[in-house]
């Protein structure tokens, strides 16, 4: 369906912009499984759902956009929503199992066996909390490598990732216990002041996308 819509956009300049390309693209989709989950949910393609949605989906969408030259090569911006939990030294990243991708054995096995199926990127046993952290680490690595390749190719597209902070009151935590999520949202955002509002998160994404100050040294 995404490919069909992109084809329509590519054939109809008015549906995207005056010159038929996007000025900015935001890779913001994400899920966070219940941290106690033991079952491995999979995408239609067979990927573990957290990595599949939070990273591989963005990766594929970017491939479709660039293969159709739908991002402005002179002034385009790409923004990837990551999270500080990718960093083992951050407060959230230091809890539970740390983000580690190893030698990407999970990906290697999925390709070599032709199944497309993996439980964890590093080939280890499924851990829902770590899968989310790993997906955010993938986001950061994707951002840095993409920017390196774009610079190398002579493109002026700017790529950045950012963390909007801990925002509980969104669909990201829809797999968690709803009562716990509501109580945690109130406690984190209003009482402990360690959480952010959806308004703040949206504003952060807007700033990363539109501000000319982003990327300035």
Protein model, in words:
The structure is a single chain. This protein is mainly alpha-helical and 217 residues long. The protein is 41% helix and 6% strand. The protein contains 6 helices and 3 strands. The protein has a 3-stranded parallel sheet with strand order 1-2-3, sandwiched between helices. Helix 2 links the parallel strand 1 and strand 2. Helix 2 (49-67) packs parallel to helix 4.
Tag the structure with descriptive keywords.
single chain, 217 residues, mainly alpha, 6 helices, 3 strands, 41% helix, 6% strand
DSSP strand tally: 3
Largest sheet: 3 strands, parallel
Compressed to H and E, one letter per element, the order equals: HEHEHHEHH
Q: Can you tell me the residue ranges where pLDDT is under 50 for at least 5 consecutive residues?
A: none
What is the C-alpha radius of gyration, as a whole number of Å? Answer: 18 Å
Shape: globular
The number of helical segments is: 6
Kindly state the percentage of residues in helix: 40-55%
Structural class: mainly alpha
Mean pLDDT: 85
Q: Classify the oligomer.
A: single chain
Distance separating the two termini: 40 Å
Spatial arrangement of strands, main beta sheet: 1-2-3
């Amino acid at each position: 369906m995404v490919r069909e819509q992109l084809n329509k956009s590519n054939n109809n300049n008015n549906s995207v912009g005056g010159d038929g390309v996007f000025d900015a693209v935001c890779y913001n989709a994400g899920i966070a499984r219940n941290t106690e989950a033991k079952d491995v949910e999979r995408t239609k393609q067979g990927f573990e759902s957290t990595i599949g949605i939070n990273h591989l989906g963005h990766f594929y969408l970017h491939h479709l956009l660039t293969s159709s030259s739908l991002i402005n090569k002179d002034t385009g911006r790409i923004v990837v929503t990551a999270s500080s939990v990718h960093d083992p030294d951050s407060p959230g990243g230091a809890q539970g199992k740390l983000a580690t991708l190893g030698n990407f054995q999970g990906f290697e096995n999925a390709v070599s066996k032709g199944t497309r199926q993996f439980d964890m990127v590093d080939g280890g046993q499924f851990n829902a909390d770590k899968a989310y952290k790993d997906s955010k680490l993938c986001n950061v690595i994707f951002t840095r490598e993409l920017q390196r390749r774009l610079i190398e190719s002579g493109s002026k597209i700017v790529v950045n990732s950012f963390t909007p902070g801990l925002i509980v009151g969104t669909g990201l935590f829809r797999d968690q216990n709803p009562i716990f999520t509501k109580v945690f949202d109130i406690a984190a955002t209003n009482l402990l002041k360690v959480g952010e509002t959806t308004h703040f998160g949206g504003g952060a994404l807007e700033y990363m996308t539109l501000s000319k100050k982003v990327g300035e040294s």
